[in-house]
Design a protein that fits this description.
Helix content is 30%, strand content 17%. It is built from ten helices and 13 strands. It has helices at 14-28, 79-96, 114-122, 143-150, 212-221, 256-262, 272-279, 297-305, 321-331, 345-355; strands at residues 2-7, 32-37, 52-54, 100-104, 127-133, 155-159, 180-182, 199-202, 227-231, 247-251, 265-268, 285-287, 311-313. The longest helix is centred in the first third of the chain and has 18 residues, at 79-96. The termini are close together.
Length: 356
């Protein structure tokens, strides 16, 4: 079987990480796989084992304005640039001739790239499969439009667990239960060795979380514990953060899970991959969900995870260096039970594709 994945991450890294895990699961089952990556290349991810077609990348600015797609130099992507992406997608799919085409997030999201997704669907006779994370960003005004578009798809893979957070919590799609397949969460084994440390602050590999960083750095200055801040999506030289002798600031690292497992306390956002990272360890955690521009996905996930002992939810708008440092002190020495998330969603997704 030949499986093509079309995925574009615009801010963080989760979409590409999840797509890569699905692609590897397909390879492990003996299938041929192509990944069309429409976001920027990520240096800390090793994708050398995969057949990746890197498209001219698009992203959004630090203002998180998803209506304005940008080229790598930060300028708005013009019609010529977007047409070049679309042409590459069509040519790559015609050359690969997939049996199945998996559109990551579309049609529930990435509506600003609808033209290239539609061109991809029309370029091949492959079975059409949509693929989304556990909580697609709620967009009530789009419900009817998405329901119509999904009629052209054989299935919608939801990479979550209905018993944990059902799709209806964010997308109450009417009359489409027969196409929805819950796969469980998509994660890969991680061989990172445990790295003992103090307080670990991470905002992922993208441009999210910039408002948390100065608060965390100022909190570190009041603490006697070692703190480490991992930064993604910025030039570290351009960061103006409070300095402290007990604070290390460095780029996002590939051994993040080892650092997380060895930390006394974790402070992070609450994206999809963060939930999986926390599920794999017992480190007490403070979640500060991203809620810029009214986004709800991380807040929905954080409220659920905060029902487990050893996980605390703190809203960014009310956060200060003192309240953050005090919460860290309260949580040091705690351990918590692992979060019961099924993380074999990659293999189960491929099994669904095989049955279809």
């Amino acid at each position: 079987m030949r499986i093509a994945f079309l995925s574009t991450h615009l801010t963080g890294t989760g979409h590409l990480v999840r797509t890569a895990a699905l692609a590897r699961a397909g390879l492990a089952r003996g299938h041929e796989v192509l990944v069309l990556n429409g976001g920027r290349a990520l240096g800390h991810l090793d994708l050398s084992d995969l057949n990746i077609h890197q498209l001219p990348p698009v992203t959004v600015g630090e203002d998180l304005d998803y209506k304005t797609l940008r080229m790598p130099d930060g300028t708005a992507a013009d019609t010529s640039y977007l047409a070049g992406r679309r042409d590459q997608i069509v040519e790559a799919l015609r050359n690969f001739a997939p049996d199945i085409l998996v559109t990551e997030t579309y049609p529930l999201g990435r509506r600003n790239l609808a033209a290239e997704y539609r061109a991809a669907l029309e370029a091949t006779a492959a079975l059409r499969i949509a693929s989304v994370r556990d909580i697609p960003e709620p967009k009530p005004k789009r419900l009817r439009e998405v329901e119509v578009d999904l009629a052209d798809f054989a299935a919608l893979l939801v990479h979550g667990d209905a018993a944990v957070i059902p799709l209806s919590a964010s997308w109450p799609l009417a009359g489409l239960d027969h196409v929805i397949h819950y796969t469980g969460y998509v994660a890969e084994e991680d061989a990172s060795e445990l790295v003992p440390g103090g307080v670990l602050v991470s905002v992922g590999g993208g441009i999210h979380g910039r408002r948390l960083l100065p608060i965390a750095a100022a909190a570190a200055a009041t603490s006697s514990r070692p703190w480490r801040i991992l930064v993604g999506g910025w030039d570290l030289g351009g960061l103006d953060l409070p300095k402290a002798p007990n604070l290390v600031i460095e780029p996002v690292r590939s051994d993040y899970r080892g650092l997380l497992a060895g930390a006394e306390v974790s402070i992070s956002l609450c994206g999809y991959n963060t939930a999986l990272d926390l599920a794999a360890c017992e480190t007490p955690a403070i979640l500060v969900p991203m809620a810029e521009r009214g986004e709800q996905e991380q807040s929905i996930r954080a409220r659920h995870l905060a029902t487990y002992d050893g996980i605390e939810l703190m809203e960014l708008e009310a956060l200060t260096p003192d309240t953050l440092a005090e919460q860290v002190d309260r949580m040091v020495g705690q351990r918590r039970a692992k979060i019961p998330l099924a993380t074999d969603g990659a293999a189960r997704s491929i099994e669904v594709l095989e049955r279809l």
